[in-house]
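A.,

Following up on our hallway conversation. Structure tokens first:
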């Protein structure tokens, strides 16, 4: 079993590396910039860079490539990483995933018709300024 950690738009950060280091066992961090560390000044700058240089679709494809190399992975994904995992979760070639924990994948709201083929636990914030969290949860049930 492998542990895959899928990053947010900030990519490979010291905080994510510290978190990963506290988890037991071996792990792989997957980020949208493929290991290139970028020090963003703000969330807006990170979002703009991600949008111009990567995007959700290419990131989803990158995540899928890494997942396909793993053996019964457990996935921990954050923000756009969680959205990328959700976006590929109905791919019938991925049922070997043991479980995915997806934290605050706000873009999931654009893909409510997806029905995952592996176990996913979605963790949302209590409130979100851009959409109704409760309504999204109801749509996904």
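Then the amino acids I'd put at each of the 141 positions:
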């Amino acid at each position: 079993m492998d542990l895959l950690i899928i990053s947010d738009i900030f990519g490979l950060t010291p905080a994510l590396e510290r978190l990963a280091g506290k988890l037991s066992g071996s792990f792989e961090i997957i980020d949208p910039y493929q290991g290139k560390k970028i020090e963003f000044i703000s969330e807006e700058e990170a979002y703009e860079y991600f949008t111009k240089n990567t995007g959700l679709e290419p990131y989803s494809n990158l995540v899928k490539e890494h997942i396909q190399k793993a053996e019964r992975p457990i996935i921990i994904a954050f923000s756009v990483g969680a959205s990328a995992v959700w976006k590929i979760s109905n791919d019938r070639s991925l049922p070997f995933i043991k479980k995915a924990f997806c934290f605050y994948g706000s873009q999931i709201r654009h893909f409510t018709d997806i029905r995952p083929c592996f176990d996913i636990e979605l963790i949302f914030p209590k409130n979100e300024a851009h959409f109704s969290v409760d309504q999204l949860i109801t749509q996904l049930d």
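The CA atoms of residues 124 and 137 lie 9 Å apart. Curious whether your intuition agrees with the design.

B.
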